[in-house]
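go over whats below:
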Amino acid sequence: MKKQIIGILSLIIILLSFLGCNSTSGNLETSDVIPVVENNPSEEKVEPQVDNTPLSPVVESEKETSKVFETSENLAKSETTEITDNFSDDSLDVIVESEFPTEQVVQLTAVEMYQNFVAGCVLEPTSTPKQISKNKKFATPFSVKCTKDGNPVPNMLISVKYPAAQTNGLISFGQTIIETNENGIASFTPTNTSFSCNSEVYFYLTPETEDSETLEYAEKNAISIPYKVITNRFYDSGILAIADYNASNKALSTNTTATALQPPLRKAGFQTIGNAPFDASIITSKNLYNQAKSILGNTVSFMVYGTVKYAEPAEKLENGQYIVTFVTNFAVMNLRDGKIVYQTEFLTTETGASEWEATNKLRTQTIPAIITEKIIYGI
């Protein structure tokens, strides 16, 4: 049965196939032949075939990497722009300083550098010349020794300030630089001793700068050696003409101060000295030189003259003592030509159980001692 059915179905299929082929063949025969179209511009151009085969994995990877780089670069540019917009220059400075801290360099002042330079150094006198007369030479030099931590310092520069001139007690200083030897000793010998003077020679370590503050500091810490040149006029004859005044500013007839001045001057070395035979009116005269010459002639070489007056009224203190201050003006005149060789003014104060005691101490002790020193180191 089954075989029969299969056979029938196969027959039907063959029949249908035969019919279909005949139908197609008939259509082709009855239809017109398709004409050939030549160069019709209206027809669409045949597009070139595109190979749609997927790219290799390597090419795809390169594309993706390129996209990643491009995206990162754009992001970096965007972030940089944003930082620049949001922070000022000052803010950026703060950020740099905080991220990269630097050590601050301390700048020392000129004085501080000099202080470091001289730290541990000591200057001390090693030679102090004796007093000489004007125009004489010092027998020994003025010398100092420089040590550091107890050891001599060779080749150290030492600045020296020394008296270079004197006018009415006002001393002008010169300056030079000397150097220590292998034993740390530096020496200085003045060459000009043509003027009398009672002063000091100053030594200090030489600064390596001209800074005024440093120089002031160096000089303030200098050491000193006495410089004494006494007058050479001890054998010249002299006369004393000093007028004393009372509290009412009237000249006294006595010559207390002049008389008290003779002993210290003779002790200092003056051989011929005495009081002048004229009063206060001549002493204070503008024509003093001519009047003195008319009285003394050529017998006297120089004259010490001036006045001693109250600078202010005497005062009684709470303890019952009296205090008196005098002002003394005096000068030394060369009676050979009338020139003033020395002139000065100074104040002195003394106390006593009475006003008389204070004034007497001034006229007989304090003032004569000061005038004597100024004369022997001033003319």
Q: What stands out?
A: The mean pLDDT is 83. DSSP finds nine helices and 15 strands in the chain. The CA atoms of residues 329 and 345 lie 5 Å apart.
